[in-house]
Amino acid sequence: MGLGQNLPMTEVQQPQPVTPELRAWIVEQAKAGAQPEAVIASMVASGWREDVAMAALEDTLRGFLDERAKAAQLPPAVPVPDPLPGQGGIPTTIRLPDREVRIVLAMRDPRVVVFGGLLSHEECDELIALAAKRLTRSETVQTDTGASEVNSARTSQGMFFDRGENELCSRIEARIAALIGWPVERGEGIQVLRYRPGAEYKPHYDYFDPAQPGTPTILKRGGQRVATVVMYLNDPEVGGGTTFPDVQLEVAPVKGNAVFFSYERAHPSSRTLHGGAPVVAGEKWVATKWLREGVFR
């Protein structure tokens, strides 16, 4: 079936209610693998206003995906932060109270956004200097027990700042909150990691596995993780990119830049499998900020 076939027609100047027939057509296109941009273009060509088409597509597909998720017995979707919540074009720059941040790359599924210049070079250097004296071998959270321990998949050194521990952390946390529309109190403290040549973090998910017995204990501190911001504090000579194997994406670790990604379901269907590629030459410093569903304590 062609993309425009059986699409309910309408007149741009008339009221345009989203009918059951239109929703059924949108679902049919989704099942056939049509891209959202092509669906919207077909609707506009048939007389639908672009704003109505976008809203109908988003609302219908969310309901369709929720039904599929229920049938597959996936964890429920939860609200997540989004630095680009609008359905219009992507801005080149986001103006925050204390800084302008560039949009380098944006993906919808999974939601991945690369920011240029989230941190100044001076802020990067200061964060490294503050963290350097407190580094220890990095640990991971074990969701079978809720405890943390050294894991061979993570060959780096790291440390955590408490949220708001110093003026620099408070400034960065407020900037991230303004950028992604998520309250400061729903964020964990900033973690700083140092990767030397050969060090890596093998592909993993940042959410806590609901099937593990230790997860309920972890979630008491603020609910599930729903998004991640990885900030690059220096320029490695070679290697050290952030990889997303499910979508064949690798983000270069450029000083001052950051990558954001969210995951509305604690499930591999989020397609947020990611890792830190091995550092081939030089070293890599990153700062990571995890965001939670609720207030993190």
Describe the model.
This protein is of the alpha+beta class. It is 25% helix and 25% strand. A nine-stranded antiparallel sheet has the order 1-2-3-14-10-17-8-7-4, covered by helices on one side. A four-stranded antiparallel sheet has the order 9-15-12-13, with no helix packed on it. It has a two-stranded antiparallel sheet with strand order 5-6. The model has no long low-confidence stretch (mean pLDDT 90). 31% of the residues are buried. The longest helix has 22 residues, at 50-71.
Please tell me what the overall shape is: globular
Q: Can you count the beta strands?
A: 17
Report how far the terminal alpha carbons are from each other.
Answer: 53 Å
Strand content: 15-25%
Strand order of the largest sheet: 1-2-3-14-10-17-8-7-4
Mean pLDDT: 90
Structural class: alpha+beta
Largest β sheet strand count, sense and barrel closure: 9 strands, antiparallel
What percent of residues adopt helix (DSSP H or I)?
25-40%
* Radius of gyration, whole Å: 21 Å
Low-pLDDT regions: none
Summed up, the helix count is 6
